[in-house]
Amino acid sequence: MIIADMMFWAVLGIPITFTTLLFVYDINSSDFTQVILIKQALNGLLSVSLATMLRAFIPYTWYYSQISANPPKLSKRIFELCLISIAIPSLIVMLVLSDNSADKLEKQLLNELDIRAEHLRERAENYQLFHRKAVESLADTLQKNSSGDSEHELMSRWVERYPGFITMILTNHQGVVINGVPSQSFEKLLQRPPSDRKVNDRDYFKVARDSGQPFVSDVFRGRGFGNDPIIAVSVPIIRDNTFYGIVEGSLNLPKFETIDNLGGMDSLLVVDSSEQVIYGSHDLQLAPLDTVTIEENSQSYSNAIKSLTLNNDKVYNYKTVETSNGWHIYILSPFDELLVAYRNSFYALLIGIMVVSLIASRIAHKFSQHITRPLERLVTYFSSNKIVPAKPASYFSSQEIETVRSQLQQAQRVMIDFQEQLKAKVDSKTEELVVLNAELEKLSSHDPLTGLLNRRGFEQVVDTVFPLACRNQSNVTLAIMDLDHFKHINDKFGHNAGDACLITVAQTIEEVLQRDSDYVGRFGGEEFVALIIGESVEQHSHLLQSVRRMIEELTVEYEGDDIQFTISIGAYSLTNQFDMNYDKMLCTADKLLYESKESGRNRMTHKSQ
User: Fold this and answer.
1) Integer Cα distance of 100 and 345 in angstroms
2) Which of 17, 220, 398, 572 has the smallest set of CB atoms within 10 Å of its CB?
3) Is the pLDDT of residue 240 over 80?
4) φ and ψ at 452, to 5 degrees?
């Protein structure tokens, strides 16, 4: 079973599994394909091996009807059991160790991803919270402004103190920009008409005005004040419950590069709630504000780690966390890194199994030889009628083998005596069987009453001579003869008288049709059949008429009674066309016999081609 399973996976299992993976699951990773193929083959081998082991515990009656008439050698049985006992536990241990190694690797990778993801989330949230607090502090200062500093001076001081801000603006309640820093960016803008300085259509103005709460926007590209990707942080200015405007800081994106360059093979991707790129590692080839497509991978490559497809292209193992403002931070691990480790682990497992199996097979082979060779020697002595040795023939003999040897010695002595007696009886019985077989052979093909061929014997002869006669184009006549009113004889004189008449008729027919090419048989009852081959059809007709006349003139004496009877004959001859088969010829002759009966009996109806 184990060898058959190995052959199955080599010839059918692996090609079918590979085709299924290729066309049904569309797996493009060669490493993962190798992992699946090896794991499936190992699982199949383990299942069959366990089933083989369990056979020892199955009740005998369950598989009694399936026992082979030619069981394998004992050495093969011992070899199989030893191999299973050694190889299967080794296989199970290796599979467990391999799975534990894979789980350990998964946990290690997952732990690393968790640590980096949490660190990045904390960094991003602290970055936003720090600068939001800065804008709230500025708004509070602008509301009170007890120091007498101008709004421009305060905003300039905040930009210097918090370098993460690219620009800062101050609007009135209508959304018109009334101040901004740095000065070189807003000098010309502040000279324009109020209608050109309105930002009341921006979310950072509308949300802060309507909610009365600080607002942190998604990433967007600035317009009017620059083209850098920025985050808008705005806080409403409210005095005596009256909205006076907002202060807004255009915040530069967090410096994720400093964290991303800490080493390792992992990549970093940060997107906002609209799946716009805030930051992407260099190997991802993504620019800020690019829109990405992130799809959960439906195929499961790991028990614990999820995978995703980025922009319908590359597959990564990943860990994601979400910040309080809706950003998603993805730590992307190279997909093949885990699979290569799995693959190498399985290859090592496969090589280990092969090595263990080879060692186990060698040990099992030698062990089986030590057990079976003494038995084979005893069997050889016994089967060749040599005297079984009185002493052990091998150092590896055992008590059980010695018991067998002693019993074989006794059996050999009994067998020799029995063979001599049996030979004499066989010779005597053989002579009786020869005589009996000859009698049985005759009974199977001859009628016991008349001694003629019975129907079976006649048709056996016909099967041989009829095709030969047709092939040689010899004239052939088939005649069916039936005694007239034979039932009347049986009813009047008795069946024993009828049997005497049948015997006389058979003798008469044989007396006339006595050539080697004439064949006569009794079909049953009072019906006889004759096959005449050779010479002319006229000669055939003359012979049959002689039979009819002689029977007409017969008188059978039985217990003082004189019995007379006649016979009707139907005969058909082949003279020039020999393609008619025997059955059709017999049917035609039977019809001609019927014509003789209808025409008054005691006559012959003979036709030929």
Assistant:
1) 11
2) 398
3) yes
4) -75, 170
Q: What is the largest CA-CA distance in the chain?
A: 172
For residues 570 and 594, give the distance between their C-alpha atoms in angstroms, rounded to a whole number.
7
- CA-based angle 272:277:281, to the nearest 5? 125
Question: Which residues 6+ apart lie within 8 Å of 387 measured at CB?
Answer: 381, 412
Which alpha helices (H) appear in 146-250, and where do they start and end?
151-161, 183-186, 203-211
What pairs with residue 330 in β-bridges?
269, 320
| pLDDT tens profile 476-513 | 999 999 999 999 999 999 999 999 999 999 999 999 99
Phi, psi at 226, each rounded to 5°: 145, 170
Q: What is the DSSP letter of 390?
A: S
482: left (phi over 0), alpha (psi -120 to 50) or beta: beta
Distance of alpha carbon 15 from the chain centroid: 11
User: What whole-number percentage of the chain has pLDDT above 70?
Assistant: 86
Q: Are 200 and 223 in contact (CB under 8 A)?
A: no
Tell me how far CA of residue 309 lies from CA of 297, 333, 442, 508, in angstroms: 6, 12, 90, 106
Determine how β-strand 177-181 pairs with β-strand 165-171: antiparallel
Q: What is the 3-state secondary structure (H, E, C) of 437-448?
A: HHHHHHHHHECC
Distance of alpha carbon 357 from alpha carbon 88, whole angstroms: 9
> Residue 173 pLDDT > 80, yes or no?
yes
CA angle 410, 414, 416 (to 5 degrees): 115
Please say whether the beta carbons of 322 and 333 come within 8 A.
no
Query: In this structure, are residues 173 and 244 in contact, taking their beta carbons and an 8 Å threshold?
Result: yes
End-to-end C-alpha distance for the chain, whole angstroms: 69
Q: Which two tokens stand for residue 409?
A: 């010695």
289-318 pLDDT, tens digit each = 788 888 877 655 566 667 777 877 777 878
Beta bridge partners of 544: none
DSSP designation for 256: T
Do 153 and 170 touch, CB atoms closer than 8 A?
A: no
| CA distances from residue 164 to 188, 354, 383 in whole angstroms, order as listed | 23, 62, 102
Q: What angle do CA 303, 309, 310 make, to 5 degrees?
A: 140
Taking the CA atoms of residue 244, residue 226, residue 260 and residue 159 in that order, the dihedral angle to the nearest 10 degrees is -50
CA–CA separation, 303 vs 101, rounded Å?
13
Q: Which two tokens stand for residue 421?
A: 């007696």
Question: Reduced to 3 states, what is the DSSP secondary structure of residue 285?
Answer: coil
Identify the helix (H) or strand (E) that includes residue 22.
helix 14-23
**Nearest 10 degrees: CA dihedral of 279, 281, 284, 287?**
40
Tell me the C-alpha distance between 381 and 408, whole Å: 10
Give the rounded distance of the alpha carbon of 386 from its chain centre.
Answer: 52
Give the contacts of 9 (CB within 8 A, at least 6 positions apart). 40, 41, 44, 45
Smallest CA-to-CA distance from 484 within 397, 551, 540 is with 551
* 11 DSSP assignment: I
